[in-house]
Amino acid sequence: MTKKPGPIKRDVELAKSIGANLRRLRLARGHSQRTLAIALQCTRTCVAWMELGHTSVSIQRVIELACVFDVEAAELFQELLKETDDDDSTG
Fold this sequence. Notes:
The chain is an all-alpha fold. Helices cover about 70% and strands about 0% of the residues.
């Protein structure tokens, strides 16, 4: 049985997972950080920090990102959901 991470570690993992998916989607759609920032009405630095998992992403921002990329909001949690499914199936 594997020990589940504590709440702070889980928050960091969530931010990094969302950030990785954000970067993947951004690059797949051909956006620069600057053009995505313009679409989100934030700074390029804000986009960079989200991609690196250095800042939490609000539910509102997840919805905005999903709209910009024309995907379901759940896609931004894709890797995290996959890991959770893997954990559930092993224990």
